DNA sequence: TCAAACTTTCAGAACGTTTTGAATGTAGAG
DNA sequence: CTCTACATTCAAAACGTTCTGAAAGTTTGA
């Protein structure tokens, strides 16, 4: 194989490893995904372990995680016992999977916790000393800033997730912060 | 202080710690920021170390990082030797700082690497075997998917960064992917 | 059902990151 | 200028995460 092709392959794989860490995954996952993405043919566990010089054990566990995230698919070959993998090459599908589960969970949880806090502050108000009441008011201000932030995040997520095949921003008309 | 106020404070601080990890910072940074955000008065290094039960050394280093990210500001008190800190409470300012440096750098770097790869593939084409030429074509397809993704990310970043005080999505009119 | 070929699991090792606390540096009061 | 109260640094320790490889489990073809 021409050295330039090898280099391009390697730098793409490395870049996806970097990207994976940036997104809060580990870089082996990113490199596995990259290797599959840059391979015209499905690859077996052994192919991946040999190609990236990591143990089969690690490949097995990380590939399972990749599958859970919808970033790789299995691919059976008739008359072969091996399990072959292919990358999910529709990037937008991958993005939507990740945003739709992990990120969304975080945002929903945060909004829940903040909402609970507001509840508690309002319910407790009548039994507070004057000094505590001032502090409670201060807390409410700060919490409302945080709520505003997460609400925008939620809207943005909903917009991206609402688009069905290619991502477009038409649906986002106006999100304003008071 | 009323127990509900303490609880609200603690869960907010913990939540910001969680958020920080989610965003690729460490959770001490998040908790420090949270503690400052939920304090009506500026806090000293000792206040923070005692409040969060972590060493002064750690507070010192993490606060410096927070300052570098524009998430906290120093605040001198006349006739005091202590250094006091306040949270930057404008969340949108914080978001813009982070997006504008770290995330932007990643996106720009990725686009650069991908662009270089396209260059190399095109330049090398004439000296490739037929088989390699097919592979190069395949690489170009995949790389162009990645480029599309990062280009959308770049546009989205520019939009958010372009808005000056409150974040609004008016400016995003239409981003389409081919 | 068996044996071979492959995958998964998991305890321990390796590795990287974060924290601590003592040593060092620094700025302001007198 | 010196002394003191503070902040900062950094080597070593603690901690958490990821990897390895051998053992156990599973699937498939015969």
Structure write-up:
2 copies of one chain form a homodimer. Chain A is mainly alpha-helical and 178 residues long. The first copy, chain A, folds into 2 domains: 3-89, Winged helix-like DNA-binding domain superfamily/Winged helix DNA-binding domain (Arc Repressor Mutant, subunit A, Orthogonal Bundle), CATH 1.10.10.10; 92-162. Chain A is built from 6 helices and 3 strands; from the N terminus they run ααβααββαα. Chain A has helices at 3-22, 27-37, 45-52, 56-68, 91-124, 130-162, and strands at 43-44, 72-76, 83-87. A 3-stranded antiparallel sheet of chain A has the order 1-3-2. In chain A, strand 2 (72-76) and strand 3 form a beta hairpin. In chain A, helix 1 crosses helix 2 (27-37) and helix 5 runs antiparallel to helix 6. Chain A is elongated and about 75 Å long. The model of chain A is unreliable at 165-178 (pLDDT under 50). Chains A and B meet through helix 1, helix 5 and helix 6 of A and helix 1, helix 5 and helix 6 of B. Chain A binds a DNA duplex (30 and 30 nucleotides) through helix 4.
Question: What layout of secondary structure does this protein have?
Answer:
The structure is a homodimer of 178-residue chains.
Chain A: H1 3-22, H2 27-37, E1 43-44, H3 45-52, H4 56-68, E2 72-76, E3 83-87, H5 91-124, H6 130-162
Antiparallel strand pairs in A: 1-3, 2-3
Chain A binds a DNA duplex (30 and 30 nucleotides) through residues 26, 28, 44-46, 54-58, 60-61, 64, 79, 81-83.
